[in-house]
Description:
- Strands 1-2 form a two-stranded antiparallel ribbon.
- The protein has one domain: BFD-like [2Fe-2S]-binding domain (Arc Repressor Mutant, subunit A).
- The protein is mainly alpha-helical and 62 residues long.
- The longest helix has 20 residues, at 42-61.
- It has three helices and two strands, in the order E-E-H-H-H.
- The N and C termini lie far apart (29 Å).
Amino acid sequence: MYVCICRQITDHQIRDLCRGGASNLTDLRAKLGVASECGKCGKLAQTIVNECNKSAAFENAA
């Protein structure tokens, strides 16, 4: 699904960056431009990053 309409960024792109080491909205903004125009996607993008971080922590603990 599209998260950032301004930049045509999808949740899959965000998740791929998280798997590659991005761990916060600043990283996403630097690499994809998420939340750099109108900013309405910032909360959803942050939610996705948080989910990825929790998932990675769970996988590392196992």
